[in-house]
Design brief:
The chain is an alpha/beta fold. 57% of the residues lie in helices and 11% in strands. Strands 3-2-1-4-7-6-8-5 form an eight-stranded mixed β-sheet, with helices on both faces.
C-alpha cells in the first residue's frame, strides 16, 4: 500500500513536470533565437578579421617603459626572455626590467640579475597567484622608484620571447593615445606535440576573430594573460587584480572605467605552451574557474554600464561605442556553454522525457546532442585549416602531416574548455605554476618563421 502511494506520487510528479514541457520548449526556442540575433555581430567580427586590423602610424616620440615579469622557478627560460628584450631595436635607456622571483627554489633570481634585471624576491605560501606576485612587485617599484617614473608597463611571463621590433610597434599604439594594448601571441613550441598546437591555434584564432576586428572598429578587445602594455595610471594605487585570471578582471574593470583594450597586430611575441595533458587540464580548469569568478565579480558592473554609460565618454557616438564595448565584454565573460548545458538538461533531458514518458525519448535526446557536437567538431577542423592558411607566414615551418594532425586534434581545445567549465562550477581550484622547459630562443625562431 505504501509503495503504491509512492508510485502514484512519483507518477503525478512526472506528469506535472511533463506538462511544463511545451511551454518550456517554446521559451527555450525563443531565448535561443534572441541569443542568435544579439550575438550575430560575432559573425561580422569573423569576416572583418580576415581582411582588416587597425594600423598605427610610426610613433613620433619614444616613451619610457618598464617591463614586469612574475617568475616562479623559471631559471631555464627567463634568460632567453631577457636576452630578447636586450635585443630590441628600442633605446635601452628608456626600458627598465623588473622581475619578481616568486616563491622560487631555484636560481631564477640569480639568472635575472645576471641579465641586468632589477629582481625582488617574494616568499608567501598563502597568496600564490600571479596577481599577488605582481601586486608585490608594484609595491616594491612604488617604494623604490615610484610607479609613475615610467609612462607605461609591459607584462610578460618568464617563458615569453619578443620579436626584435616588439616594443617599437607597441610604442606606436601608445603614442597614438591608447592606454591598454595587447599584441599578437605566437607560439615557440607550436610543433612540439598536438597539445601545444591546440593552444597555438587558439591564440591565432583570438587574434583573427577577437582582436583584429575589435581594434579595427575601435572597440575593446581583451587581455590574455601576457604580452600587453598599460599606462602607469592604472597602478597609481597599486595592482589589485589577484584572482585566478587577473587578465579578465583587469579587462572588465578597464571597460567599466571607460577605457578600451586596443591591439597591435604587428607586435609579435612568443609563448611556450603545455605539452602534458595533465598540465593542460590543470591549467584549463584554473582558467575556467577564474572566468566564472570574473563573470560574477565584473558582470554586474558591465551590465549596468550598458545602460548608464560612463561620464568620461562625451557625445552620442562615443557613449554608444562605450556601451556596446561593455555589452561585448559581458558577452565574452558570460559562461554560455554552462548556461546552454543547464537549459538542455532541464528542458530536454528532464521535461521532455517526462512529457513523452519513454526511455527511448531520453536515448534519442542524448543521441541528437552527440550528433550536434560531432558536427561542431568537423566545423572546428575547417577553422584550423583556415588559421594555418591565413597565418602561414607567421607559423613555424613544419611538415604537412603535422599540420593535418593538428587540424584534426584542434577541436579538443574547445571540448576541454567546455567540460572544464562544468567541473569548475563545483570544484575548488587553486593556482599552481605551469612548468616551462623549452630551450628555444629568439634567434631559433627568427630562422624557423617564414618571414
Amino acid at each position: 500500500m505504501f509503495w503504491d502511494s509512492v508510485c502514484e506520487i512519483l507518477a503525478d510528479i512526472v506528469k506535472g513536470l511533463g506538462s511544463w514541457y511545451p511551454t518550456a520548449n517554446s521559451i527555450y526556442q525563443t531565448v535561443g533565437t534572441v541569443i542568435k540575433y544579439i550575438t550575430i555581430y560575432q559573425t561580422i567580427y569573423f569576416i572583418l578579421g580576415i581582411f582588416f586590423t587597425r594600423k598605427f602610424k610610426r610613433a613620433k616620440k619614444m616613451h619610457k617603459y618598464a617591463v614586469v615579469i612574475a617568475a616562479r622557478n623559471e631559471e631555464s627560460v627567463i634568460g632567453n626572455l631577457l636576452d630578447s628584450i636586450s635585443k630590441q631595436d628600442y633605446p635601452s635607456e628608456l626600458l627598465t626590467v623588473f622581475v619578481v622571483a616568486d616563491n622560487c627554489t631555484d636560481n631564477t633570481a640569480k639568472v635575472a640579475r645576471s641579465h641586468g634585471a632589477v629582481c625582488y624576491e617574494r616568499f608567501d605560501n598563502e597568496h600564490k597567484t600571479k596577481g599577488f606576485a605582481l601586486q608585490y612587485l608594484f609595491s616594491q617599484i612604488e617604494k623604490d622608484y615610484g610607479t609613475d617614473f615610467v609612462e607605461g608597463y609591459f607584462v610578460f611571463d618568464a617563458d615569453n620571447l619578443l620579436k626584435s621590433d616588439y616594443i617599437s610597434r607597441m610604442n606606436d599604439s601608445f603614442d597614438a593615445g591608447e592606454k591598454i594594448i595587447t599584441s599578437f601571441r605566437n607560439t615557440k613550441n607550436f610543433d612540439e606535440d598536438w597539445i601545444a598546437s591546440t593552444y597555438a591555434l587558439h591564440w591565432i584564432r583570438s587574434a583573427r576573430t577577437n582582436h583584429r576586428p575589435r581594434s579595427f572598429l575601435h572597440l575593446s578587445t581583451n587581455i590574455q594573460g601576457t604580452g600587453f602594455l598599460f599606462d602607469s595610471l592604472f597602478v597609481k594605487d597599486g595592482w589589485k587584480y589577484t584572482s585566478l585570471t587577473e587578465d579578465r578582471a583587469f579587462t572588465a574593470d578597464a571597460v567599466v572605467m571607460g577605457y578600451r583594450v586596443s591591439y597591435n597586430d604587428e607586435a609579435v611575441f612568443y609563448d611556450e605552451q603545455p605539452v602534458s595533458l595533465k598540465i593542460a587540464l590543470r591549467q584549463r580548469l584554473r582558467w575556467a574557474k577564474g572566468h566564472l569568478l570574473a563573470f560574477v565579480e565584473s558582470g554586474p558592473g558591465l551590465f549596468l554600464n550598458i545602460f548608464r554609460g560612463n561620464p568620461r565618454k562625451k557625445g552620442f557616438a562615443e557613449g554608444a561605442i562605450h556601451r556596446f564595448a561593455s555589452y561585448d565584454t559581458l558577452v565574452q565573460l558570460t559562461p554560455r556553454s554552462l548556461i546552454g548545458l543547464i537549459k538542455w538538461l532541464f528542458v530536454f533531458v528532464l521535461l521532455k522525457t517526462c512529457y513523452k514518458g519513454a526511455i527511448l525519448t531520453l536515448i534519442l535526446t542524448v543521441w541528437y546532442r552527440i550528433h550536434y557536437r560531432l558536427k561542431m567538431y568537423v566545423k572546428s577542423i575547417f577553422i584550423a585549416v583556415y588559421l594555418f592558411f591565413i597565418e602561414h607566414r607567421r607559423i613555424k615551418k613544419m611538415p604537412w602531416y603535422k599540420m593535418a594532425l593538428y587540424c584534426l586534434t584542434w577541436p579538443t581545445f574547445d571540448i576541454i574548455g567546455r567540460y572544464s567549465t562544468y567541473v569548475a562550477l563545483f570544484k575548488k581550484v587553486t593556482w599552481k605554476p605551469i612548468p616551462h622547459n623549452s630551450k628555444v630562443n629568439i634567434d631559433d625562431l627568427n630562422k624557423s618563421i617564414k618571414n
